[in-house]
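Let us work through a complete example step by step.
Step 1: write down the sequence.
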Amino acid sequence: MSEWKPLLLPLLEEGNTPFYLFSADPMASALAELNEAFSGLPITHWLSAKTQPLPALFRWWHRQGRPIEVVSELEFQAARATGFDPEQILVNGPAKHRWLHRHALPGLNVNFDSVAEIRALGPVARQLNWRLGLRVNTEAEYDPEKPDYPTQFGFAPEELPSAVRLTEELGLRLPILHLHLRTNVASPEVYESAADQAMRLAQAAGLKPEILDLGGGFPPARVRTKGGESVAAQFSLKGMAQVYRQLLERYPQLRGLWLENGRWWSARSGVLVVRILDTKEQRGKRNLICDGGRTMNALVSTWENHEIFFLPERTGEEVITTINGPTCMAFDKLVRRRLPRSLSIGDHVVWMDAGAYHLPWETRFSHGLAAVYWHENGTTRLVRPPEGFPEWWKQWAPEVSLRANP
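Step 2: predict the structure and record it as tokens.
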């Protein structure tokens, strides 16, 4: 928390709440942490664009000479606009045959998600020499809300042999095998079991992958569940390094491992700042109504608890308090816990670990988008002003007069 305070205090004077502040410094620290933990391993880190679609972050990552992973047409276009070469772009996600043909460039990395994708994009892939893979849906991949249901991604085990035959008929090589489980994967053992199953399925289908793409899902250290448990309680980078070494020993044809972690990198890289506008006491409970909250700025608060602090600092007697946003929804509650009664109108609440999945899930629920600041090399700058009515209104196509046919 202390590292954020000196960066935040000057911004509070600008009065642009709610706002996000993102910084390159925590990203650089995360990169150093992974480099140390995975030293000597043939690992490539791909930046997950969907997790934090922030142009300043993309540019910073590109300057490191590192590649980016995209799952949509807009993300692909953003990567190209940032300057990433085709060889530095990995295209994942479902239904990419709907749009990828419009951006067909030599040298792309593409993981097919379905037979329809292979049929539609296979000829283009061969012509443009794409590096290709198949995504496998392992038993460890399921809907977190309904674990009895598999997710909609990748090839089921029974589909894999026919998918491989189709690629052979099209003259395609498949050096990559891809799996992605979900966010906040609990432990290294989950990855190990899923990777083993994926490799066995691939070998049974006649594949000998040279690159194993393990997706993302590392859980951030400070985030807790709604029940208060750490999402990273059973996770360790040391354990993951051991898993990687064992996979490389068990499958000697593998010459590289790809990782697409998003929230582990970026959760720590941002904070959300909101200002208290009003206070209420109802049925023995206290509400602080702020100019930002869950509905507009932090949808992840629906299932996660994040650390918070206050500017100015407040202490003293604590009471059960709900921090609400300004929208007309009871759903709009960012935090509910015991907080100092001394919190008052004009104070600021800082919601930590706001770097992952906050911008992509941001809404305009009766309000404009929040201001965004970026900190790099000791300088903080406004990279997106708060959205006002003119910016919101001009997104709509101009009205035209419609005349009835004579």
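Step 3: interpret the result. The two ends are 69 Å apart (CA to CA).
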